Amino acid sequence: MKHFLKICFLILFQIFFGQKSKVDLKIDQKIDSLKENRVENLVVFSQNCVGCFPKIMLKDKCNSNETQYLFWKKDLVSYQQKFDECIDYKAIKLENSKLVDLITTNYKQIKSEEIRPIEYKKGKHTIRQVVDHYSYNILKFIYKDDSFQKQIIDYQLETKMIDNKTPNQNYLYNQKTILKKVLDLVKKETY
């Protein structure tokens, strides 16, 4: 009986927490197709929010809770494709996009770099500020057989001053990171 309960628990856990979203499945299928066509460098971008209000759902309309963007380059041409739960979007060509080249050139640095948290000095102590609700960006980088993901919290990038007289000691560092440059290019291409 104990063994049976363990198996039931594992099955339920897999059903509720192990399934990929419809959007993730669409993106995975596209990535597999691109890899078959020898595309080696891709990036997936999405945004999310912790502690934010739920979206307003319109009756009789498809409401997507998730939107992701896939970027890649093939034969010297850059592309972007949007994915959500409602529509199958076509890939579009990007004019003069530097995104994939920037990632290819700086892959190791992007992989090792982190956006630093908001910190300030108070006497001899360093205080780290945290918030309970925030928006964040997810960047998944895929290069050949390697992949990794970065989560970038907007508040950590945008907060220059804690109050009118206390600076965030990591603001300038965060502004100069390659991750900030990549995120700026991604946002430029998606908005």
Major β-sheet profile = 6 strands, antiparallel
Count the helices. How many?
Answer: 7
Beta strand count? 8
Mean pLDDT: 87
What keywords describe this structure?
191 residues; alpha+beta; six-stranded antiparallel β-sheet; two-stranded antiparallel ribbon; 7 helices; 35% helix; globular
Structural overview:
The relative contact order is 0.15. With 191 residues, the chain is an alpha+beta fold. The protein is built from seven helices and eight strands; from the N terminus they run H-H-E-E-E-E-H-H-E-E-E-E-H-H-H. It has one domain. The strands form two sheets. It has a six-stranded antiparallel sheet. The chain is 35% helix and 30% strand. The model has no long low-confidence stretch (mean pLDDT 87).
Short description:
With 191 residues, this protein is an alpha+beta fold. Helices cover 35% and strands 30% of the residues. The chain has 7 helices and 8 strands, in the order ααββββααββββααα.
Could you outline the blueprint of secondary structure elements for this entry?
Elements (H helix, E strand, L loop, with lengths): L1 H16 L4 H15 L4 E10 L16 E8 L2 E8 L7 E3 L4 H7 L1 H6 L5 E5 L2 E5 L4 E10 L2 E8 H5 L12 H5 L2 H13 L1
